[in-house]
Amino acid sequence: MSTPSLTRRLWLAFALMAALTLLSTVIGWISLRVISQVEQTNTQALLPTMNMARQLSEASAYELFSAQNLTNADSEGVWLAQGKMLKAQSLKINHLLQALSEQGFNTSAIARQEKEIAQTLGQQGTLVGEILTLRAQQQQLSRQIAEAAESIAAQAHGQANNAATSAGATQAGIYDLIESGKGDQAERALDRLIDIDLEYVNQMNELRVNALRFKQLIVTLKDAQGLSDAEDTDEKLNQLVKILSRRQQRIEDPTVRAQIADALEKINQYTTLVTLFRKENAIRDQLQTLMANNLFQFTASVRKCHSW
């Protein structure tokens, strides 16, 4: 057999290299195609899980938002609405955790946190309900006390006007006595005008002014910030009650004196009102602690969701 020429052998070598290159390309294309299909299959398989993790994260965020709204609820309607929303979000979170657990994910830690959050939110809802009850009591009692103080001011104003009218008549009588040459009687009438009539006018005006001051303090009592402010307001109210009580005893008209005594009994309930505000402040401190704990738990839950 004859030996192939050099040219023929070169052509064969080039043909072999081309075949190897083509084969390598085909193998590479097939490998990439297989890898792509595997990745696509894995991605498709993970999409439901990724979607549930996203829903879990969103549900946790909505739960936190509803918890904040619950804390700021200013009516029973808002309180009930936020409570229902929290319950719905909690049920959704538990359903998603159950579904993820069935797919083999370890959700025990998040489930425990969600249980703790649900318990805390239950306590939070109870405290907000107590605050709303206290506010209703505060508003009713505050209105009654303010009306009593306003009644005292009105009665005192009437007494001051009557005393001023009487003082005017006494003053006119003094002029008549002087013109009639009855100096001794005029002097006694002048003493009575100064010591009794004008003094009584001043006392009734003081009663009126202090009753209005008391009413203003009652209206602004809910705005007292901090323990020191509340104690300062409490002391001012106490001093005003003592002044009103002393001036009530000087009222000459027995009917008016009895009416103002009844109003003073209502005013003395300011101590109950102060207690109600202090209870609300104490509950708000508890709510702040619960909210801080909730925020920590929510953050931990969201981090676990993103770690999947």
TrEMBL record:
Keyword field contains Nucleotidyltransferase: no
A Pfam family this chain is assigned to: TorS_sensor_domain
Matching InterPro entries: Sensor_TorS, TorS_sensor_sf
EC number: 2.7.13.3
Keyword tRNA-binding: no
GO molecular function list: protein histidine kinase activity
Keyword annotations: Kinase, Transferase
Recorded superkingdom: Bacteria
This protein's name: Hybrid sensory histidine kinase TorS
Organism: Salmonella enterica I
